[in-house]
Amino acid sequence: MKLAAFQYQAKCYVGVVSSDLQSITPYQLSDEQAALGALPIVEMMAKGEALPAQGAPIAMKDVCLLAPIPKPRRNIFCVGKNYLDHIQEIKDSKLGEAQGSMANLPKHPVVFSKVPEAVIAPGVGIDSHAHATQELDYEAELAVVIGTQGKGIKKADALKHIWGYTIINDVSARDVQAKHVQFHIGKSFDTFCPMGPWLVSADELDSSKAAIKCWVNDELRQNATTELLIFDIPTIIENLSAGITLYPGDVIATGTPSGVGMGFKPPKFLKKGDKVKIEIAGIGTLENPVI
């Protein structure tokens, strides 16, 4: 199942994407529910409730996709330093110098968060925030969406708590990161969390072998697979849930592979007019311009 949030004739909807990706069949939800994207459907499924009736299919070409969860109920959990090559490229950068020993290979998952208000839809512009940063960067990431509430979840049971997956661009202001020697502020600017194009249910994706690619304009910058994760998804969920209850609709970004702008010598930071395209096999493509 692929769940998409979208706008059609000035109204918001949530529906199931067809297998050929050519149409979306909307659920009959209230305007208030539809404004939350796929979140109400995920929550209904978690409670075992019957899903709403569906209307007639709408052609994909006639809709404007929104972020699948445009208004997460709380901050997005993010894992940093989760690919070995990415750790090395950052360690050798100015940001690595600012972080000192924090830039080393972690023994446990490094977790921070992005505010919900940073979320934007596919195609929406990433604000360059030229007044606040000169080092705008991209990070292609597989994101997990929780489907079943849990606390103290063990690795062996972690996959049972996942509804599905989506793509996130963990946009970052590297100079702000270096200034504050932590991640939250430099990764939570408005528009710094493109998400989409939709949610893909867990039964449709092998998250342990998902291929991740990222292009800036026409240049392939990131090309890896989740097989290279230092801390796999069950480990991340076990660590997060040890003292924090995870709820249906919670989003967890699992980290980015090497190839970010800061990793190049000299760095290749984003600038106005650039286009960032992220592709994860089994999910789709998320593309946003820099404005």
Q: Which stretches are low in confidence, meaning pLDDT under 50 for 5 or more residues running?
A: none
Mean pLDDT score: 95
| Number of DSSP helical runs | 7
The major pleated sheet works out as:
12 strands, mixed
In CATH terms, what is the fold-level topology of the largest domain? Fumarylacetoacetate hydrolase, domain 2
Helix fraction bin: 10-25%
Distance between the termini: 33 Å
CATH class of the largest domain reads Alpha Beta
The CATH superfamily of the largest domain turns out to be: Fumarylacetoacetase-like, C-terminal domain
Number of domains: 2
Count the E strands: 18
Global Rg: 18 Å
CATH architecture of the largest domain: Alpha-Beta Complex
The fraction of residues in strands falls at 25-35%
Q: Characterize the overall form.
A: globular
Instruction: Note the run of SSEs as H and E.
Output: EEEHHEEEHHEEEEHEEHEEEHEEE
Structural class: alpha+beta
Spell out the key features of this protein.
291 residues, alpha+beta, Fumarylacetoacetate hydrolase, domain 2, 12-stranded mixed sheet, 4-stranded antiparallel sheet, 16% helix, globular
Draw up the topology in text.
Elements: E1 2-8, E2 11-17, E3 23-26, H1 31-34, H2 39-47, E4 58-59, E5 64-65, E6 76-80, H3 84-91, H4 94-99, E7 110-114, E8 119-120, E9 136-137, E10 140-146, H5 155-158, E11 162-169, E12 172-173, H6 174-180, E13 193-201, E14 211-216, E15 219-225, H7 233-241, E16 251-253, E17 275-280, E18 284-289
Parallel strand pairs: 6-16, 8-13
Antiparallel strand pairs: 1-2, 1-5, 1-13, 2-3, 3-4, 6-7, 9-12, 10-11, 10-16, 11-13, 14-15, 14-17, 17-18
